[in-house]
Amino acid sequence: MKHICQAVAAAYPEIKLYALLIDERPEEVTDFKRSVTAKVHASSSDESYAHYARVADNLLQTARRQAGEGQ
Length: 71
Hints:
Layout: H1 2-11, E1 18-24, H2 26-35, E2 39-44, H3 49-68
Parallel strand pairs: 1-2
């Protein structure tokens, strides 16, 4: 997934790029954030399923709002 984010960022530097990581180890989240220019939203493996859903929903709402604003 890192390679996909890097490729999209290189091909389309003007877009806002988001990455959603669910059920990842905290050190994997840190590594991912350091490796890509995407805005990373993550929920690590030590968090509840309800938290996973909140993180995903928050990102979806953010993306919808920004798309609606033409960003």
